[in-house]
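Q: Given only this backbone (256 positions), what sequence would you predict?
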């Protein structure tokens, strides 16, 4: 059995989320237990609008995710900026197109974690995750939160993105704040922790041990009867030998 394949999928307008996504990949790879691949959500805005927004140039070196790739993977880490406390339209548009996967239950039982970017510490890093949970619920995906595995998440004297819901970055109102080493380290930890859980969920099932039945062997279905309860065909050789001894003994009675 090969390693579980985990996809890290991001949408990034100004590059902040992409930096965190790359850290997530490094964390997954550091575990040594999964194969990690990086993808981005397709852009839905026209180029002239993105230019007016001063968006970062589109990175053509990172392939765009497709619904077929989702079905082939064993788990996902998904990252995106918040739009008024919810996921951006680009991400929702993609998930709106996963109806065929839903109808087949193609994502049922697969793990998924999230990471985010907001302009401020109270810009929706938790509400964005919370509002996105229905997508996971309807697909039967298993939400894997981050928890608080890093001491940086307890700091109160510095701006640090991320929460128990997932890794994150504080970008500032004008996008001037770049991901700090603390936010990057938290993202790497998330990748490592996610790999552990993904491996547990994808581990092969242990062989089932037959359970002894209280019913007599004669009342049990043939498929459930122990091997000793099934009569074995008699050996012709042994049966023949026993019969011959009986005949010889019977003859000796008359000789006497």
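A: Predicted residues:
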């Amino acid at each position: 059995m090969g390693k579980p394949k985990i996809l890290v999928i991001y949408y990034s307008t100004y590059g902040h989320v992409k930096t965190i996504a790359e850290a997530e990949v490094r964390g997954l790879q550091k575990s040594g237990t999964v194969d990690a691949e990086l993808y981005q959500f397709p852009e839905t805005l026209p180029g002239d609008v993105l230019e007016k927004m001063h968006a970062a140039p589109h990175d053509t070196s990172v392939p765009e995710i497709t619904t077929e790739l989702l079905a082939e993977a064993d788990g996902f880490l998904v990252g995106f900026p918040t739009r008024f406390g919810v996921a951006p339209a680009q991400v929702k548009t993609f998930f709106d197109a996963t109806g065929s996967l839903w109808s087949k239950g193609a994502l049922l039982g697969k793990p998924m974690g999230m990471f985010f970017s907001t302009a401020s510490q109270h810009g929706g890093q938790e509400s964005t995750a919370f509002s996105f949970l229905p997508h996971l619920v309807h697909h039967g995906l298993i939400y894997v939160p981050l928890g608080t595995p890093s001491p940086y998440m307890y700091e109160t004297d510095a701006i640090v993105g991320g929460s128990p819901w997932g890794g994150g970055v504080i970008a500032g109102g004008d996008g001037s704040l770049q991901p700090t080493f603390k936010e990057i380290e938290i993202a790497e930890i998330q990748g490592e922790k996610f790999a552990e859980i993904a491996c547990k969920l994808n581990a092969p099932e242990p062989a089932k041990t037959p359970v002894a039945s209280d019913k007599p062997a004669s009342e049990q279905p043939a498929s459930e009867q122990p091997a000793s309860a099934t009569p074995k065909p008699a050996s012709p050789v042994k049966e023949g030998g026993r019969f011959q001894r009986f005949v010889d003994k019977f003859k000796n009675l008359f000789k006497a």
